[in-house]
Amino acid sequence: MATKRTSISDIAKELNLAVSTVSRALSGHSRISEATSKRVWKLAEKLNYQPNHLAAALRKGRSNTLGVIVPHIDGHFFALVIKGVEAVANKAGYNVMLCQSNEDYVHEQKNIETLMNAQVDGVLVSLARTTHDFKHFEKVRKRDIPLVFFDRILDGVNVSAVVLDDYQGGYQSVQHLLEQGCRRIAHFGGPQHLNIYKNRYAGYCQALHDHGVPFDQELVVFGDMTLADGMRSMTELLQLPQRPDAVFSASDFSAVGALQVLKQHQLRIPQDIALTGFSNETFASFTEPMLTSVDQRCEEMGGAAVRLLLEMVQERPTQLSPRKILLQPQLVVRESSRCRQE
Amino acid sequence: MATKRTSISDIAKELNLAVSTVSRALSGHSRISEATSKRVWKLAEKLNYQPNHLAAALRKGRSNTLGVIVPHIDGHFFALVIKGVEAVANKAGYNVMLCQSNEDYVHEQKNIETLMNAQVDGVLVSLARTTHDFKHFEKVRKRDIPLVFFDRILDGVNVSAVVLDDYQGGYQSVQHLLEQGCRRIAHFGGPQHLNIYKNRYAGYCQALHDHGVPFDQELVVFGDMTLADGMRSMTELLQLPQRPDAVFSASDFSAVGALQVLKQHQLRIPQDIALTGFSNETFASFTEPMLTSVDQRCEEMGGAAVRLLLEMVQERPTQLSPRKILLQPQLVVRESSRCRQE
DNA sequence: CTGAAAGCGCTAACAG
DNA sequence: CTGTTAGCGCTTTCAG
């Protein structure tokens, strides 16, 4: 029945060697004779030896596991980021332990506990929407465990991070709408304590400014970026004496909400109101009209984040200087904003 | 700088107790005095003691980690399943290690290696599309590590598994279409070596049969269930001398493909051709018309799968009798098939 | 180049 | 109820 795993000491016994010798041979140490090394490897293979990582981890104080905390995993952004993370991590010989905070601050704290208990060698985090402070991460830093944030970071805190240039994403979206002839461009914004939403908004403002279009406060609606929220915001905008001729939404979900409301009101897209979203979700090309959106280079982000983390894990002097990586977004133009005829 | 973790022995020293006593107190052992227990807990709290799980795992031979292998993580089905898995696993004090096979057999084998090395206590698997045999799982069984499959299982192999009653899903979809007055109902089917597609197809056939509608081979098109594939299949069907009046697609993606083709051909949905998909993807309510689909109870599936796995992990006699759990699907009727007028 | 021995932090007999 | 002791399997000095 259950076959006992073969251990280093089994091999050592069989070969009349010391465990230390076998250990060294197996871990490709230099100061070992070609001959013994061969013998060890051959027997290891034959006995189907599998190293006990737990033991090694305990001894070395490193687990070869990285922890990742994301707000959630549904919706393709984080899914793709994780794909990127896994690919790079596995290639480098690391395992990945995944936690979801469910957009909840308290849950996020628990996740940190979990990962610390699992002795991960480094942590990758994208903040929950409800996270406003940094207390729980102090613990990580105290233990001197490398920490890298991605996408959603807390503003004004000096940490290593990989983020999309959301400002550019916003800027390009609005510039594109302006080029299509739109002048009253509205914005659906998210919680402003999160860098991503703040920057998208900033890009929006700057683009308007640079093109000499006056900023109008009543065209900006903040919300939580769900589909329902988008419906609410759009309904609100349609009640203005002079309605907008375009909407730049900071999320594809609320953009779809807007889209549904516009259809209910028999308004044509993009002729009456042009529409752009953010994230380039899978469904962006499933709606009608297809939704213009901003691609966030998800997999690249995941890859870049782990690479940064691994650098920190491998070379010691961690605290020296937090590094930031800025990824360039890509505007994907589709029907909902294209070829606008005046 | 890096604070050293406090260990059990630190606490023991401080309190003039034996490590074993402290250990027992901390793990809520019964045979310990109320008083010492209190003292231990208090100090542990004060020193912010965090148990070293690796050490415990090494000692106990169990890692308190479960491994999960999924084909991929994008697309909401697996995302939600994983959410369910995590919720239940974490509540039971287990960590989850996630691997993606990328729908690739070879990659799946590597994932198994990875998880075995990480010493997981149990493995949860949903097969890659390209997996046709079971060799790599033998290793898991040899080691007597509990193994539970979910959703995608290999046909005819006797293992524990949690699956959706895909047959029912197919049956209900077709029955619903029949009730709407459709008679020439087509089917987009997936790779038939996978249980899920095979059963959806079987449900389709049986429903037709039970309602006295003759089966017509030319109305069944097999493919790989992508959006492009749906477009191809639909185009093919439209070339028939007598076109179908409904399509039951085994995937929402190919259903959307069909939907796009139908629109290009100026056909009305559901009046000219009714349409139903499978999986109830997020975007099912984003299309126009909204897509009728079958909900797969994703989170329940994840939860049920871990619970089954944990039972096996906790009580020893593993090999006794593989258990199967069958979840009932739920038809979600939306515009693409509703209130059909003849 | 190889061996002996110590110990990572925890648990589980076995004794009191 | 508490203490003593022995290891889980591996890496890593320190000696040869």
TrEMBL record, chains A, B:
Alphabetized SUPFAM superfamilies for the sequence: lambda repressor-like DNA-binding domains, Periplasmic binding protein-like I
GO molecular function terms noted in the UniProt entry: DNA-binding transcription factor activity; transcription cis-regulatory region binding
Gene3D superfamilies the record matches: 3.40.50.2300, lambda repressor-like DNA-binding domains
Organism of provenance: Hymenobacter glacialis
Name of the protein: LacI family transcriptional regulator
Taxonomic placement: Bacteria, Pseudomonadati, Bacteroidota, Cytophagia, Cytophagales
Domain HTH lacI-type: 6-60
Record keyword Ligase present: no
The UniProt record lists the keyword Protein biosynthesis: no
